Every structure is written in C-alpha cells, then in structure tokens.
Amino acid sequence: MADKNWKNYSLETQAIRAGHNRTAEDEHSLPIFATSSYVFKNAEEAALRFTGQKAGNIYSRFTNPTVNAFQERLALMEGGERCLAFSSGMAAIMAVGMGLLKTGDHVVCSRGVFGNTVLMFQNYFGKFGVETEFVDLIDVKAWEAAIKPNTRFLFLETPSNPLIEIADIELLATIAHKHDCLLIVDNCFCTPVLQKPFSMGADIVIHSATKYIDGQGRCVGGAVIASNEIIEKSIYPYLRTGGATMSPFNAWVFLSGLETLSIRMKAHCDSAFELARWLETRPQVAKVHYPGLPLHPQHELAKRQQTHFGGIVSFELKGGKEEAWNLIDSTEMISITANLGDVKTTITHPATTTHGRLSPEVRALAGIKDGLVRISVGLEAIDDIKHDLARGCSEVRNVN
Ligand SMILES: Cc1ncc(COP(=O)(O)O)c(C=O)c1O
Fold first, then answer.
1. Atom of ligand 1 nearest to the CA of 92
2. Which tens digits make up the pLDDT trace of 206-239?
3. Is the dihedral of CA 348, 350, 351, 355 positive or negative?
4. pLDDT tens digit sequence for 231-279
5. Is the distance from CB of 69 to CB of 19 less than 8 angstroms?
6. I need a surface site. Which of 60, 187, 253, 386 has the fewest CB within 10 A?
7. pTM of this prediction?
8. For the domain bounded by 6-259, which CATH number is listed?
9. Whose CA is nearest to atom 9 of ligand 1?
C-alpha cells in the first residue's frame, strides 16, 4: 500500500486511500501517532536523522506519521509536489511570509482576503519592513501596476471572502511570472474538488483546513502546498524552528474530512446555488453575490475555472447593520458563527465579525457594506434553510 503510485488515481480515490503507510499491526484505519518523539537505534543514527542524512522521524514538531499522511494526501489532491501542515490557516500564511520575505520586500495582496490576512500583512510583516499594497481582486491592470522590482509574491483568495468575486488565476500567474514573482492562492473556499490552482500556474496554495477539509467544525488547522524546492528551502526550516505544528489528532480528523470532501462539496454547491436563486426573489434583498448566477460579473470565468460554483452565498439587504442583525437574530436553526465550510449552515455579519477589525475606510474599499450577510450553506434540507431565512427576511423592516 505504501508504494502505490496514487498520482495515477482520481482525486476521490486519493482522498480515501493515499498517505496511509500501513504499520506492522496491519490496521485498516489510519492510526493516530500520539508521540512527541521517536527512538533511535544508537547515537549515530540519531545524529544522521538530525542532519537529514538518514530519513526517519525525529520529533513531532516537524515529523509525525499521522501529520505526514495528511500532508501526502492533500499534496496529491491539489496536484502539488509537497505539503506542510500547520496549526491553523493563519499559521500557514504566517509561514509563507516568514519563509519567503525579508526586510525591504514588497507584496501585492488582494483587498478581498480574510480580515486577519490583511492584518498579518499590514501590521506584522509591515512591522518588519515589508510593504504590502492592496489591490482590487478583479482589476488585472491594478495587479500589474502595483508590482515593483522588490515584489516577492502576489497573494489572493478566489472566490473572495465575503463578496465571492473571482480572480483569473491563469492570467495573474502569467503576470506574476513575467515580473519574477510567485503567485499564492488561498484555496480555502473551493478546495481541490472545485479548483486546482497549480494547473493554472499558481506557485503556492494555502489552506485553512478548519473549513471544508474538516467539514464538521471540529478542529483548527492549515496547510501550505508548493514545489519541493520552495518547501525545502523556505517553509520547512521555518516550521521546524517556529513550531506552529498541526497536532496528530487534528491531522487524523482532517484525513477523514478529506475522505468525504468531494461528495460534500458537490452537495454544498447544489444547495448554495438553489439558495442564491431563492434569495434573488426576496423583496428585502438588494443584491446576491454568487458566481453561479448569470448576472455575477465573473460568471463565465467561474464556469471555466471551477468545477462547481461553491458553497458560500452572500447578499446585501436593503438597509444597513440593523436590518442585517435583525435577520441574523431571527433565524432559529442556522448557527450564528463566523466559521464556514461546515455541514451546519452558518450565518455571519462580515462588517462586525470577520472584517470588524479593519478600519471603516479599508472595509469600504473592500466593498463590505453594513447590510452584507454571508451564509455558508450546510447540508441540512435546503427547504429548512430557506424556511429559517424566510422568517429572518420577514423581520427585516426596510424593504423600500
Ligand atoms: C479564506 C480564509 N483563509 C484563511 C483563514 C484562516 O484560517 P484559520 O482560521 O484556520 O486560521 C480563514 C478563516 O476564516 C479564511 O476564511
């Protein structure tokens, strides 16, 4: 089983079978290696493993068989060479910055990224003399114009959070490479089931495994997938030293999450599409953001770039924060929580939660209005989801 070439198998099979190197116990289900360290046959072997001259486990901050299995499986599914797991999605983003950037470097980042990602670039990398310029995700000219001789990488999420805009990965990869920069894609909203950034020229893929990869809202984790060279030179040394490691238990949960990812993603997408169409018919709703809708500005691009349109829908209510909070508070089944990618439908008000720590100016530039509500469509019966929101919609007073 260990030496099978899982590369030749389809994503659904890789998700279930790859990464498990069966032990001498002949177990069928992948075990959790709850051990912080490993035993060496003698002092010489210990020395050889520490210097990397001999392969093998050393210490679970950077080598653990359960975590390795998760890394191997996700790398295959993304079509990347190598994956490293982290304690959270933010730790994965932190690792990319710490591994690749130095004082005086420059980054171009989409304005439409997760709020903490903006803060990471602005406040933390900024503190050490790395300058970040934020641009509109879909303004290709702005991306190219922002690149300077010291730009190291372009960073984006597509679809974006929370406005579900779609970037042209292939075009941005071409622009990045023309200027000797890397393209980094946070593929958290799509997962490899819906979108394969490496096949379109991306150099690094980031994941918050906390979302669809887990799929049931249990664990926090993240991953960086890239070429052997990038991982070996820039990311692995940081993980080994920095220690933002994924725990074996979390890796085990994420491994089983990957097993059902394909079937879950398709179900999330079907329900989200139906919900988006239904929301369009609500008199209280001013605008629905969902790339499956023909009126979405990047509908054709989404059709080309993704296999399905995704499980997240956001919409603007007529009115502002009060109307959005009324709608959220009058739901009875849907969970009021900022997490997404769960089998349970979740609802959030981005302006006061996920993007609440951004200044009003930065939020306005990112197009996040006070009346915006984001829904991560779960796997409950779609009629029950609609029913819960219909009750919420009737609570919205401002329908003019
Ligand atoms: C697109 C995206 N990337 C990264 C993150 C950060 O992941 P984590 O919460 O696992 O640190 C999030 C979290 O919401 C996210 O939505």
1. 11
2. 999 999 999 999 999 999 999 999 999 999 999 9
3. positive
4. 999 999 999 999 999 999 999 999 999 999 999 999 999 999 999 999 9
5. yes
6. 386
7. 0.95
8. 3.40.640.10
9. 89
